[in-house]
């Protein structure tokens, strides 16, 4: 597990501002958090270098690109040995419609967020999952809509969320 870097109040404000608007220019960000532009750039680079900032990218509405169905799929494998887990992860990596993959503890081994153009597309995806080696059970949970997509709470210096 990666070591958590020490974040001061300014780093936390930078993170909050970038979550609100990742396209913000460094000079505007520096002005908002009350530090010099070079200091702000140094801090952002350090946050990226340490892995605190994983990526800055656009969040696109699935429906705008024709993906009418968002589903969450749980996968239970026949075995939880490292080779079976790694083989499953390798098999889904090239599938562009699998947006997220989470390894779980409990009844299912993986939770996948998938997009498809419709119910037929979702059905094809489920058949592809069933054909993967080591898959025991598949459960699909089609989404009826998203109620919230919020930013991460930025913890205070003592570790409690703000």
Terminus-to-terminus distance: 24 Å
Count up the domains: 2
Query: In terms of per-residue confidence, which ranges show pLDDT below 50 for 5 or more consecutive residues?
Result: none
Helix/sheet category: alpha+beta
CATH class of the largest domain: Alpha Beta
Q: Which sequence of strands runs across the widest sheet?
A: 2-3-1-4
Characterize the largest beta sheet: strand count, sense, and whether it forms a barrel. Answer: 4 strands, antiparallel
**Oligomeric state of this protein:** single chain
Mean pLDDT comes to 93
Order of helices and strands: HHHEHEEHE
What is the number of strand segments? 4
| CATH-defined architecture of the largest domain | 2-Layer Sandwich
Number of helices: 5
% residues in beta strands: 15-25%
Helix share of residues? 25-40%
In CATH, the topology of the largest domain is named Alpha-Beta Plaits
Layout of helices and strands:
Elements (H helix, E strand, L loop, with lengths): L8 H12 L5 H8 L3 H13 L19 E9 L4 H11 L5 E6 L6 E7 L2 H13 L3 E8 L20
Helix pairs in contact: 1-2, 2-3
Describe the model.
This protein has about 160 residues and is α+β, with helices and mostly antiparallel strands. It has two domains: about 10-50, Orthogonal Bundle (Arc Repressor Mutant, subunit A); about 60-140, Lrp/AsnC effector binding domain/regulation of amino acid metabolism (RAM) domain (Alpha-Beta Plaits), CATH 3.30.70. It contains five helices and four strands; from the N terminus they run H-H-H-E-H-E-E-H-E. Strands 2-3-1-4 form a four-stranded antiparallel β-sheet. A hairpin with a 6-residue loop joins strand 2 (about 100-105) and strand 3 (about 110-115). Helix 1 (about 10-20) crosses helix 2 and helix 2 (about 25-35) packs across helix 3. The protein is elongated and about 55 Å long.
């Amino acid at each position: 597990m990666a070591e958590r870097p020490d974040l001061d109040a300014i780093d936390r404000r930078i993170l909050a501002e970038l979550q609100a608007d990742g396209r913000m220019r460094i000079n505007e960000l520096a002005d908002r958090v009350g530090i010099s532009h070079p200091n702000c750039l140094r801090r952002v680079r350090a946050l990226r270098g340490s892995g605190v900032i994983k990526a800055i990218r656009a969040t696109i509405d699935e429906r705008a690109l024709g993906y009418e169905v968002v589903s969450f799929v749980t996968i239970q494998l026949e075995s939880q040995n490292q080779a079976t887990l790694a083989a499953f992860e390798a098999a889904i990596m090239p599938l562009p419609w699998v947006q997220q993959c989470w390894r779980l503890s409990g009844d299912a081994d993986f939770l996948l967020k998938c997009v498809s153009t419709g119910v037929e597309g979702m059905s094809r995806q489920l058949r592809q999952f069933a054909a993967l080696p080591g898959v025991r059970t598949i459960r699909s949970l089609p989404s009826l809509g998203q109620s919230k997509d919020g930013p991460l709470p930025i913890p205070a210096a003592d570790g409690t969320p703000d």
